[in-house]
Design brief:
The chain is 51% helix and 0% strand. The radius of gyration is 28 Å and the shape is rod-shaped. The chain has 15 helices and no strands.
Length: 241
């Protein structure tokens, strides 16, 4: 009786073993314990660069079905089952970003560090100086949504200012950069104390603050919308804090 020849698969070139698995005759799956992160990199790079000659944009479209078609679906387990982590690991030279992948998923944006990385990416692309208020005003929801597919990033951050705030080096206030359409009570408290104590250097009991002071400090909207354009009402509110 002929005995089936035994192979020391761990001593054989990974690409050769992979081609044997793809043929499916001698070996239908990779041996237990054979695969790891480094072998994943070797196989993916061989497929994408040497065999298929894919470009950067095509790499971003790789999905689970694609990997399974080439007997590489199991590689995902080394990367938290996230294909974008696998591909970012395999192709560091392409500077791939999580949000560029079609199948990255909306939960991606729950991660603060990824949102920060995303804003820094946009800032670099748009040549926005994060230390300059005038430059920061170039950020807009429209820019993120229409040019950088950032609707979910905005949603998970809680708004435009909340999205960019973690990467701004200086303690700029929202009203210094953007027009605020809806003034909440808490936001009005913060703005009034900032205006009085930081910008005007006055202490309680606060004297009347003129309308000009509001407009000079980008708080004209607060005066109009929250205090019915009444500096007296605004000062009474401030002294009640």
């Amino acid at each position: 009786m002929n005995k089936r020849k035994k192979y020391d698969w761990f001593s054989i070139d990974p690409i050769y073993v992979w081609h044997i698995v793809r043929k499916g005759a001698l070996l239908k799956t990779f041996p237990n314990g054979y695969l790891d992160k480094e072998i994943s990199r070797i196989l993916i790079r061989s497929l994408v660069l040497d065999e298929l000659h894919l470009k950067r944009e095509e790499i971003l479209s790789i999905n689970e079905k694609f990997l399974s078609n080439y007997c590489l679906g199991g590689l995902r387990k080394f990367f938290d089952c996230k294909i974008y982590l696998l591909l970012m690991y395999c192709f560091p030279e392409y500077n791939l970003n999580e949000w560029e992948f079609k199948k990255s998923g909306n939960k991606l944006w729950e991660n603060l560090e990824i949102r920060k990385k995303y804003v820094l990416f946009v800032a670099k692309k748009e040549n926005i100086n994060l230390n300059d208020i005038a430059d920061l005003k170039r950020f807009s929801s429209k820019l993120f949504i229409e040019k950088y597919k950032g609707s979910q990033a905005l949603k998970h951050a809680g708004g435009l200012f909340e999205l960019i705030k973690p990467v701004i080096p200086k303690d700029f206030k929202e009203w210094e950069i953007f027009k605020i359409n809806i003034w909440t009570n808490e936001k009005a408290k913060e703005a009034m104390l900032w205006l009085a104590e930081e910008k005007l250097n006055i202490q309680k009991p606060y004297p009347n603050i003129t309308a000009k002071k509001f407009y000079d400090n980008n708080l004209g909207g607060l005066l109009c919308k929250f205090f019915d354009n009444s500096p007296k009402k605004a000062t009474l509110f401030l002294n009640s804090l």
